[in-house]
Amino acid sequence: MNGTLQKITAIWRHIEEVQKNCFLLGEKLDDCGEPDMARQLIMNSLVHDQSKFMGIEWEYLSDTDNDEMHKLAVHQHNTTNAHHPEYWRGIANMPSVYRCEMVCDWKARSSEFGSSLKEWIDGPAAERYGFTKRDKIYREIMRYTNLLLEKPFTQS
Questions:
Q1: Tell me, what's the pLDDT at 156?
Q2: 100-107 average pLDDT score
Q3: In angstroms, rounded to a whole number, what is the distance separating the alpha carbons of residues 111 and 117?
Q4: How much helix, strand and coil, in percent to the nearest 5, is found in the chain?
Q5: I need a surface site. Which of 18, 28, 88, 95 has the fewest CB within 10 A?
Q6: What is the mean pLDDT of the chain?
Q7: Contact (CB, 8 A) for 58 and 52
Q8: Contact 18, 45 (CB under 8 A)
């Protein structure tokens, strides 16, 4: 497989995983009596990360050899995609539906990296976006996270 197809495949797989997460969370939100939020979330997933296929994001988002251009590509991505707090100039300014999509995106990334979504939220995300476990935003993020995640195995 050539480099272009590998890059397309990686982006496509990520988007597909986010879409699956959004559909699952949308189902759960609908079950909780939030059909408008569910519909909007699923609709958002259909355009998730399309900017990665164009311009500076296509050229440099996955290119960590060119640090300056990579940083510009990340900045471009984060400030032009509404599921990133940077788009809204802070997580507190984000509408809830985009926080839902953000959690679905974080879940996809945690699966891709084999890491813990909840550890990411409690540690690096809280630090980066300036929220604590006492904040309303944290409770909202954890509500979506808990709806999205499978329940752990229990012993019989």
A1: 59
A2: 98
A3: 8
A4: 75, 0, 25
A5: 95
A6: 95
A7: yes
A8: yes
Q: How many CB atoms lie within 10 A of CB 2?
A: 7
Residue 25: the pLDDT is 98
What confidence tier does 64 reach under pLDDT thresholds 50, 70, 90? confident
pTM check: above 0.85: yes
Q: Which residue has the tokens 């939220």?
A: 121
Burial class of residue 143 in the structure, from the number of CB atoms within 10 Å of its CB (0-12 exposed, 13-18 middle, 19+ buried): middle
Residue 152, C-beta contacts closer than 8 angstroms, at least 6 positions apart: none
Could you please report the per-residue DSSP string of 99-150? HHHHHHHHHHHHHHHT--HHHHIIIIIHHHHT--TTSHHHHHHHHHHHHHSP
Cβ neighbors of 127 (< 8 A, separation 6 or more) are none
How far apart CA 65 and CA 121 sit, in angstroms, is 28
What is the three-class DSSP state of 69? helix
